[in-house]
Amino acid sequence: MISIRNLYKSFGNHRVLEDISLDIEKGETTVVIGQSGVGKSVLIKHIMGLLKPDRGAIFVDGDDITKYDNKQMKEYLQRFGILFQNAALFDSMSVGENVGFPLREHTNLSDKEIRARVAEKLQVVGLAGIEDMLPSELSGGMRKRVGLARAIALDPEIMIFDEPTTGLDPVMSDAIDNLVIETQERLNLTNVVISHDIAGTFKIAHKVAMLYDCRLIEVGTPEEFRNSPNPVVQQFLARKAEGPIKI
Ligand SMILES: Nc1ncnc2c1ncn2[C@@H]1O[C@H](COP(=O)(O)OP(=O)(O)OP(=O)(O)O)[C@@H](O)[C@H]1O
Ligand SMILES: [Mg+2]
Q: Whose CA is nearest to atom 31 of ligand 1?
């Protein structure tokens, strides 16, 4: 679905991405892992067209989106749903208003249709009937799920998850991972996930891509990662400070 080809990006003298090539398959979950500050968010922003590369191309359905003008880019962005790290709910709005917000902004649906769509999306994330609650009344896990309901409100093709389980307990993390898998299968989404959670990554990923020192040093299935002979990969998976990784 998305083919990244020989992508380079620097900010001033600071090189972040170097010769990145990656294929993101339709209907699969691709997880990008790597140290803090390595460039995961920068890579995702290129996929969404929010940053332009210095060199390289990103083909989506055969089109190089790095060449899109503003109007084409706006249409392209409509194909994405995004779950931010902090869920980014509007605290002054109820859950129902939060999930309905993109529908009110981007569609001509009636109030009744919006209410029905909101109810359906809350059902998908296992939170049916909580429309009238306020974000401040929700646990972290519930906030994430409401954020997911809002992200899928416009029926996106591609879902971007920036660290969906960071800050959650292990049980809630696993529940969110299950939801990532369920929504992906149910809505036939193409998922791109940034994660620091190795166990979760192995559970949800069809494909894992590891960024290190500006480059993708390993791309493969969870099985291929576990068996990787690369000492950098093995150090990261073992979550050890000792090893070849520069801190
Ligand atoms: N707009 C920008 N202008 C200048 N530098 C930037 C910009 N965006 C990102 N960077 C730099 O690019 C590098 C990679 O940042 P990025 O946010 O992609 O890291 P990350 O891998 O997502 O880290 P984390 O896991 O902590 O979120 C950092 O050194 C950051 O300072
Ligand atoms: Mg980041």
A: 37
The CB of 214 under 6 Å from ligand 1? The reply is: no
Q: What are phi and psi of 45, to 5 degrees?
A: -65, -30
Q: Which amino acid is at 71?
A: K
For residues 232 and 220, what is the distance between their CA atoms, to the nearest angstrom?
A: 15
CB 153 within 8 A of CB 121: yes
- The environment of the single-atom ion ligand 2, i.e. residues with CB closer than 5 A, is 41
32 token code pair: 């990008």
Mean pLDDT by 10 residues, the chain (247 residues): 97 96 96 94 93 96 93 92 83 96 94 97 94 94 92 94 88 91 92 92 96 96 95 91 84
Indicate which atom in ligand 1 lies nearest the CA of residue 51.
1
* CB 38 less than 6 A from any atom of ligand 1: yes
Q: What is the pTM of this model?
A: 0.92
Going across the sheet that includes 63-64, the strands are: 14-24, 2-11, 55-60, 63-64
204 lines ligand 1 (CB under 6 A): no
Return d(Cα 133, Cα 135) in angstroms, integer.
7
CB 1 within 8 A of CB 24: yes
- How far does the centroid of ligand 1 lie from the alpha carbon of residue 30, in Å? 20
Strand partners, 23: 3
